[in-house]
């Protein structure tokens, strides 16, 4: 097991240990360009649980495709314990991915995931890790949490997967967390489930994590909080635009659905968001397109259609006007 730094958070309260049981063992598969924040938030609660309990409640090992190291999205190299060989019978596998997850999917990784699932050793995935499980065919019909930036891609590629906006999902068969600090929330949930809420609370205190979230908590700050919007009509209008990106409604259709005039809808958007309904809807569509370009290898024509554009030339012009480069140039920057 790779060495981890000792706690520097001062005197450690000793929780009443649960009855002696063998430590739970996790194996973390680090996909190249994995998110270091999500990785740390997954492992540190386990380390601190051991520290607070005064004995090993959890053990873990690190895996990568090459079996020697994995590079995170911040450029740091992490040494790992082994490659894609079979796990031990009592190990449970978590997949942690990050940027360009779809481009990191390989036949040997998919075979590994399917084999470990068949042997009952797959626990779940964190950040964009669920994309790999979906590609392996392991998430059909499952409720899944993954980082909001990958929601469009997951829904586009894997419509049988039930994407939810929650920070984590502790399902009966698969555990998923949206990345970042949501990984800590999931692990604190597991610690509480395994060893009681008192221990989970002490671990959270050691982490200075005083806002532990339930799985149902939303990933993103609400539109109401982000913009200080309290007008219910405007909130409904925004939701209509957000849920119909592939087939964007016209402002007059949204106004009719809300029972107001188009002029009144225009005034609401100008007053609270500083833009027009048409422009707001266009920016939503272009942001989805950019996410799909950055995260997938889908043809640009398909991305245009998925973002509500029936003309690729119109899509290219709008994209350049918004981001200062064409869709093709945006994709070329990734290679």
Strand residue content: 5-15%
- The number of helical segments is 14
Structural class of the helices, strands and pairings? alpha/beta
User: Order of SSEs, N→C?
Assistant: EHEEEEHEHEHEEEHHHHHHHHHH
What is the CATH topology assignment of the largest domain? Rossmann fold
CATH superfamily of the largest domain: Class I glutamine amidotransferase (GATase) domain
* Major sheet size, sense and barrel closure: 6 strands, mixed
Oligomeric status: single chain
Biggest sheet, spatial arrangement of strands: 2-1-5-6-10-9
Number of domains: 2
State the CATH architecture of the largest domain: 3-Layer(aba) Sandwich
Report the C-alpha radius of gyration, rounded.
22 Å
Helix content: 40-55%
- Using the alpha-carbon principal axes, give the shape: globular
How far apart, in Å, are the first and last alpha carbons? 35 Å
β-strand number: 10
Mean pLDDT: 88
